[in-house]
Amino acid sequence: MDSPAPGDGQPVDLLTRFQTVVQYDPDRIAVRATDGDLSFAQLDRLTAGLANQLAARGIQPGDRVGVSVERSSRLPAVLLGVWRAGAAYVPLDPDYPADRLAYMATDSGIRFVVTGDIAAPVPRGVEPLVLSDPPTEPGGAALAARGPESFPGPAYLIYTSGSTGTPKGVEVTRPAVAALVASLERTGFYPGEPTVVAWNASASFDASVQQWARICRGDTVVVLDAEQRRDPDRLAALLAEYRVTDLDLTPTHWRLLRGRLLEPRPDGSRLRLFVGGEAVPADTWAELAFAGSAGGPRAINLYGPTECTVDATAGWIEGAGPHIGTALPDVLSYVLDEQLRPVSPGQVGELYLGGTRLAVGYANQSALTASRFVADPFGAVGARMYRTGDRTRHTTDGVLEYVDRVDRQVKFRGFRVELGEIEA
């Protein structure tokens, strides 16, 4: 894949954007969390320190690094630091079963797991690397300056459910993540001015990328800890205290919060909800649409598989619904029959997605990659499209409606669960 470069109409690398913010607004708050705040300048130093630690241990551009860090100000610093080293991060949620973590560590080929605590458990055979503050590792800023040359490289490897009982790692590139952010900006779903974003999703869930990476465009990211995510009263109070403007959540989570967030804010500001991870029920759609029209929170419905870099389609939750909106600017969408022929509006077919944001594929699973990432008969030679397994249809208004699945995959609290994995 060619490297997008500033000035040629392609998205700018997010590390380049981050360093621009550091240069022009170093004292503004970049991260807020229960353990304290970090300015952009402080975050810059912390990420450079981690990149130096990784480089001193032989991490090269393109390598993969495990991340098992509590939900604190350190977490976004670690993810950015891995990027600055030219590597891809592999989130290892400590709440996952030990055998699953061990499989992910082995399959991804990681040699190090970055932790915030020397006593943190890590899979056998993997060396823990504790983030030092202040950085004490040898080497200077030059070790951390691996931005432009590593831009075409990997961003992360996130494991999803597998129908055979084996998790599958989806590898996504940094250009794809840069394109995701640029696409949401172009469509107006991200406002032009800096905002305050609540980071709600687990780092092991691809929706987290859409939340934490907004630091790179100059937004302040508020890292919600485990208790704040679970307790509706604490979460609502925090959103008000920090004047959060954007919150990403699933419809299931919204139902727990609705009584605390439906009413207009006293100061006249409006919360923007990014709703995704599972289908929006009709009653939830109607409720959010009404709230948006009455001065309450405005909501956006986002749809997209991990294999297409988080979000592929989006639409405001307003009017009749539910629907999953239209394809984002850098995404190609096709609703096709079993012979890969486009179906007419109103007819149901399987949704295929193409464009520059497709994942590289599944790590160490070439056969599965070939079966899901297939040749795009409507694109240029060599173009691919991803077979989502979701059955959809176009309405007469041109938006996409989700219908059901072609397989046995289900969604639970925003996570993909394939029943074959449970059975296995």
Give a brief outline of the structure.
With 424 residues, the protein is of the alpha/beta class. Helix content is 29%, strand content 26%.
Give an account of the 3D structure.
Helix content is 29%, strand content 26%. The longest helix has 17 residues, at 40-56. Mean pLDDT is 88; it is low at 1-8 and 134-150. It contains 13 helices and 23 strands. The chain has 424 residues and is of the alpha/beta class. Helix 2 (40-56) packs across helix 3 (74-84) and helix 9 (232-241) packs across helix 10 (251-261). It is globular, with a radius of gyration of 21 Å. Strands 2-1-10-9-11-12-13-14-15 form a nine-stranded mixed sheet. Strands 16, 17, 19, 20 and 21 form a five-stranded antiparallel sheet that branches. Strands 4-3-5-6 form a four-stranded parallel sheet, with helices on both faces.
What distinguishing features does this structure have?
13 helices; 5-stranded antiparallel beta sheet; 9-stranded mixed beta sheet; 23 strands; alpha/beta; disordered N terminus; 424 residues
Describe the SSE topology.
Blueprint: H1 14-24, E1 29-33, E2 36-39, H2 40-56, E3 64-68, H3 74-84, E4 88-91, H4 98-108, E5 112-115, E6 127-130, H5 141-144, E7 154-160, E8 168-173, H6 174-186, E9 196-199, H7 207-212, E10 220-223, H8 226-230, H9 232-241, E11 246-249, H10 251-261, E12 272-275, H11 282-293, E13 298-303, E14 313-316, E15 326-327, E16 331-336, E17 349-355, E18 361-362, H12 366-372, E19 373-375, E20 384-394, E21 400-405, E22 409-412, E23 415-418, H13 419-423
Helix pairs in contact: 2-3, 9-10
